[in-house]
Amino acid sequence: MLPENMSVKTVTEGRNFHRYLYLGDEEISALAVTDFTVRLGATHVRTGGIGYVRTPEHHQKKGYMKILMNDTIEWMAAEGFDISTLLGIPHFYHKFGFAVSLPQIKYTLDYEFIHPVTVNREGLTVRPVEVEDFENVLALYNKNNADQTGSFVRTREFFWGFARGSVLYSQADHFLIENAQKELLAYVVYDRNESELNICEIETVDNTLFYVIMDELKRLDEIQTRDKADIHFFMPDHHPFARFIRRYGCTVATEYPQNGMGMTRICNLKLLMEKLAPELQKRIRLNLGSTYCGELQIVTNLGSVTLIVENGSLMISDRESAQKFIVPQQNLSQLLHGYRELEDLLIDPDGSITCANRQIAALLAPEKEPYLWSTDLF
């Protein structure tokens, strides 16, 4: 319920919803919600990406953004969003039920460590990514990230090229590798300045292209930086290229913010669990067997939902169960993203998180750790 004399106006522009808070006729706060599709494991869920948050300076510290954020969370639930994602400033968005769910990972490789290797480039062409390549680039990206939690599902409708590099306002550059038949074999997205070369995204059809990519990156580093600079790679630890560059000797910095940056929350608990059910059933059958029977009622501050497993088949229900998993929605979101594990949640000192069936609850977390590519920052 909005305070007296306040109203919210929503303006739709494509997949963006611009929301404005008014005091009478005066705009006093605003934000935008972008309709993204994100992966939790291999499941596609709808997330409201919150950005462009602003309040005029003379209206700051009056609680207006708090009013608009709370109204927007209710609005997203009513509009059918499963979760919400944002890149938050520290110590603010936790007040609205958001929790850190997306780590930041950077590998650093010293130029001098890249020893020359004879690379066979016969039949290969390296060139910039063009508009006519977008369909193939998207297909390769979506295939390689099919089960990467936190990654956005990209579609041609909303893909206009790589708009940004390693940080929100950096300009991205790129190249692809194709064979003599003009078939896409790999693409690389990067940004650079006089002192460093940042690799934001690498996808290949197979790992045999890695040495060709390294040869090209070393050439770029020599040409485009003032001196032979470090090369930074922004990618998850389990990415094949991250494992490949370990042979050169490198350092890795993983940032797990206490409160801020990549944060998520749940908007519709039952809708979300219904979408996740097919994948959860696969995990249950793989880990607990096709004859397993059990149940788990997930109880959150958004309500509850019960997972009922009979002979390996999963059903989502509203019925009560003695086998309860009592957990705040923000911590459940961290678990569903694979950012925190069940056993880690259960040792919180206040004892507010309890679980009567750890077998099922542990399988709510995907196998891979979450990651959002910097090229999708919003």
Please specify the SSE layout and strand pairing.
Layout: E1 6-13, E2 16-23, E3 26-40, E4 43-54, H1 64-78, E5 83-88, E6 99-102, E7 104-109, E8 125-127, H2 134-144, E9 173-178, E10 184-192, E11 196-204, H3 210-224, E12 230-233, H4 240-244, E13 251-255, E14 261-266, H5 269-288, E15 294-300, E16 303-310, E17 313-317, E18 324-326, H6 329-337, H7 342-346, E19 354-355, H8 358-362
Summarize the structure.
By secondary structure, the protein is an alpha+beta fold. It has helices spanning 64-78, 134-144, 210-224, 240-244, 269-288, 329-337, 342-346, 358-362; strands at 6-13, 16-23, 26-40, 43-54, 83-88, 99-102, 104-109, 125-127, 173-178, 184-192, 196-204, 230-233, 251-255, 261-266, 294-300, 303-310, 313-317, 324-326, 354-355. It folds into 3 domains: 6-100 and 258-264, Gcn5-related N-acetyltransferase (GNAT) (Aminopeptidase, 3-Layer(aba) Sandwich); 105-255, Gcn5-related N-acetyltransferase (GNAT) (Aminopeptidase, 3-Layer(aba) Sandwich); 268-362, Nonspecific Lipid-transfer Protein, Chain A (2-Layer Sandwich), CATH 3.30.1050.
